[in-house]
From TrEMBL:
The chain crosses the membrane at residues 25-48, 60-78, 98-123, 143-162, 201-227. It is found in: Cell membrane. Keywords: Cell membrane, G-protein coupled receptor, Membrane, Olfaction, Receptor, Sensory transduction, Transducer, Transmembrane, Transmembrane helix. It is a multi-pass membrane protein. InterPro entries: GPCR_Rhodpsn, GPCR_Rhodpsn_7TM, Olfact_rcpt, Olfactory_GPCR. Residues 41-298 form the G-protein coupled receptors family 1 profile domain. This is Olfactory receptor 14J1-like. One of its GO terms (cellular component) is plasma membrane. One of its GO terms (molecular function) is G protein-coupled receptor activity. Odorant receptor.
Amino acid sequence: MIMTNITTRNGFLLVGFSDDHELQILYALLFLVLYLVALTGNFVIITITTLDQHLQSPMYYFLKHLFLLDLSFISVTVPQAIDNSLMDDNYVSYGQCILHVFFFTSLACTEVAILTVISYDLYTAICFPLHYEIIMDPRNCQWAMIAVWVSGGISGILYSNFSNCFIKSATFSITFCRVKIIYQFFCDVPQLLKLFCSNDYLGVIGVAAFMFVVALACFVSIAFSYVHIFSTVLRIPSAEGCSKVFSTCLPHLFVVSFFLSTDICAYLKPTSDSPSAFDFMVSIFYTVIPPTLNPIYI
């Protein structure tokens, strides 16, 4: 059934969690619940941090952008998955696949950048409290966020540009080595790479290597910030002061660790011709769960 007409259709077939339509409906309902929880939680927090005059510090400014980002991030993959499951039609066109790649990679890279900026904000607040207002003044915060969003957009353009070149060549000459089946509930880069026949994939790997270096730099920056934060906190004589700092930092550290570890697991793990339930669960962990966990920041 999966193979039917897919070689002649101008697009890809997403193979999600099950071929059973009743199970697909169950998964769609579960995704819908998670999506509504994420939308409601993030929207409420964005509204509160915008309207409450006591929540106008740089930290809440960055968190507001993070919540807005996660609203967009979860909206790239989950609504499409819900629609495909309910309609029992997992076909996506080339154009939809390019948009998936662009928005997903843009927002994922932006997320890593924002988490890095938030860790630097915490580092500055705890390690240099007397200089905090000067370092994190509103103008600097605005420029930091502009740089974050622009860097994410550039990442998405690089990925989608190579994907677009590949797709255009595939449209006019059959360059697929395999049937155009993506074992994922969205157009994921590792799954697309598995379909390449020509050396075009080397360009995507080059971009992926560059982005890996950038992500590694962000990870090192976050680790550097937290090493100094914890070394400073352990010197605080007051147990109440330590508890307050830990209650602020640990939620952020948890989300950073969760997001980066599942991302690394998904992108460095070799793709399989018969993905396991574990592979799909990992993809849910880095696409759906982080936006749903955002309220733990507040």
